[in-house]
Amino acid sequence: MKSIKRIFLFLGVIILLLPVRIVTQAAEENHEFHVRNGEVVFLLDTSGSMNANDKSRLAIDAIRQAGCSIPSNYKTGFVAYNTGIQSVIPLSSGADPMGEQLSSIIYKGYTNAGEGLSQAVELFSTEENVERSIVMVTDGEIDMPDRQAKESSRNLYSETIKKAKEAGIKIYIVAVGSELNDPQMHIFDGAEMTDGAIYWQGQSGNLVQIMNRILYDRMNLPKRSVGVTDGNGGSLHVEIPSPGAEHVKVVLTSVQGIQNVTADYTAEEGHISSGRNFAVIEMTRPASDAVDVRFQTPELTGVEAYMMVEYTAEPVINISYRREEVTPAAEGEKSKSKVPPVYNHFADLKISLKDIGGKNDNLWNTPYYEGQSVPFCVNGVWKSGTISGGVIPYSLSIDGIDELSVEIDSSIFSERYFVTQPVTEKLAPPPDPVPEPEPDYRPLWAILGSLVLVIVVILLWWYKKKNSAVIYVSQSPSMKEPVKMKTKACSYSGKFSIYVVRTADGRDVPPQTYQLFGRNSGRMTLGQILTSCKIKLGRIGEEDIIIYPGPDHSVIIMDQSERCTVLRGMEILKKGMGYPVFYNEKITITFEDESTEMEIHYKNLKPSERKS
Asked: Transmembrane segments in this chain: where (predicted)?
């Protein structure tokens, strides 16, 4: 029982660690971005039974469609087999490389799949970093004139599958007709043992759709959908993402056929390859930024259009330099010795992609690429940046670095980039500024000393004038003329007990005490006092209630507001006139919002309060 528990525990750990390994491996593979070349061999069963299962020769048309649709860095080959080998086309590239020989294919004889697969595997090169695939189209199992020949072909087929697996060749099998309805048939071993795939005509779609699934879903060839049309004819306006493309292919496919395909464009070279159910417009170095395609279909059927764009490019690094002074030493350290400033140095990069052919200095400088996120590598460190204004901005510290090496992961785009990289740039930051010799500041200090003395005299005069404000004070209601009084000689004493009787929002404000004794003589506002007491009433005229120190331990209250009402006892204070308030007298204020009301009681300090 314990051993069973240990087994389950071990399996649980494996299951938990497996996603971590998958994520790590995926992260590592994300930066295997160099575009790999490819080789595809199409293997066609041309036995006599194909006359019944492919009467319209749609398999041949589908092979031409796939061969014309692959990128320029792929080579295609072809093998046709029946009793023996009917036709062989070595690996080559270019527009419609198999067109002429495919048209001469004849369906006759038996099905020697072993010899056909062996011949297909022999066509591949031995180059490294090449993706290799076989697309096999057949309608039946291996069948030969006698039992010995049949067994020999089966054995050769099995041995060749092993060779294909060792060489990393994936086999995709397209089963046509109705005879290949058993997934366990021997012919399907080629797909299962090489991590390929099996497609049944009808069940997996028609031959046009199956070829597209193999190219774009299984082989992951780059493409971008540019339109789907319905009807018995039409046109497409296809815009090229960025000027400077090396090759552009526009692929049109239709289930029921497509005819009379024409295209308007300007390019160094151009070619249209067409079959019964497809058409491929191929351009080299297009000068126009769009292609207008016109076509007809014999029936009311849909046409799907894809575009493949290839660029040959290299990264471009524009560098600007900046420096930041290191935080200076403490004042005590500065006084000991004169240390020159120390700087940290930075490089601000703008990374773009340039067309090697010289047609376009910045392939990303179009709205199509704006805002796209691109992984890139600087000196071995991977980052992710967003294209803005045609460039990826990036900043880094360059202290201790002599050059930069930059790579771009272009595999995230729908277009195919053949990028020459990494690119390196020598760093050449400007030299740091040299401190100038210490000048003799003694004459300047003498001048500054004189200026400081003059400024001090002016400030003393200003301060004296500020604190000797002259106000007009009304002594009593019976006095017709106010008395002119200077506040310089007066000082504050006592305290204010502040009571907010009512507020506009109905909230309660606790009573506060504000001590006047010991404060600098001079002008104060009620707003300053309320702020000190943390009483917030809003801008309702409190800043216009002015307070001065008065004689005989009094304070002078002056109302300079527009709509406040200030009472000394029962007497309303006139605007702009000072009124003395003595100990135990009360000031009542109704503020400009006509809702907030406050009482201020002026009181003497107890001896204990004076000491504190």
From this structure: 444-463
Q: What does the alpha-carbon distance between residue 197 and residue 421 come to, in Å, rounded to a whole number?
A: 34
Q: For residue 410, give the DSSP letter.
A: G
| Consecutive H or E run containing 288 | none
CA 565/CA 191 separation, integer angstroms: 98
Question: How buried is 440 (Cβ within 10 angstroms: 0-12 exposed, 13-18 middle, 19+ buried)?
Answer: exposed
**Integer Cα distance of 410 and 417 in angstroms:** 6
Burial class for 320, CB neighbours closer than 10 Å (0-12, 13-18, 19+): exposed
CATH of region 37-218: 3.40.50.410
User: What is the distance of C-alpha 268 from the center of its chain?
Assistant: 35
Radius of gyration of the chain measured on its C-alpha atoms: 46
Each domain of the chain, given as residue ranges in start order, spans 37-218, 223-326+342-432, 470-611
For the stretch 581-591, pLDDT in tens is: 999 999 999 99
CB neighbours of residue 111 within 10 Å: 25
Angle between helices 113-122 and 147-166 (to 10 degrees): 30
pLDDT digits (tens, 9 = 90+) for 65-109: 999 999 999 999 999 999 999 999 999 887 777 877 888 999 999
**List of residues 6+ apart from 138 with CB closer than 8 A:** 43, 44, 45, 111, 113, 173, 174, 175, 176, 180, 187
- For residues 311 and 363, is the Cβ–Cβ distance under 8 A? yes
The two structure tokens encoding residue 503: 């507020």
Edge-to-edge, what's the strand order for the sheet holding 555-559? 483-486, 470-473, 578-581, 555-559, 545-549, 524-525
How far from 434 is each of 338, 355, 402, CA to CA, in Å?
Answer: 14, 42, 22
Q: Does domain 470-611 have CATH number 2.60.200.20?
A: yes
17: left (phi over 0), alpha (psi -120 to 50) or beta: alpha
348 neighbors 425 (Cβ within 8 angstroms): no
Structural contact between residues 559 and 567, judged by C-beta atoms closer than 8 angstroms: no
With a cut of 80, say whether residue 314 has pLDDT above it: yes
Joined together, the tokens standing for residue 369 give 């690429």
Give the Cα-Cα-Cα angle 556, 562, 568 (nearest 5 degrees). 35
Q: Where are the alpha helices (DSSP H) in 369-517?
A: 442-466
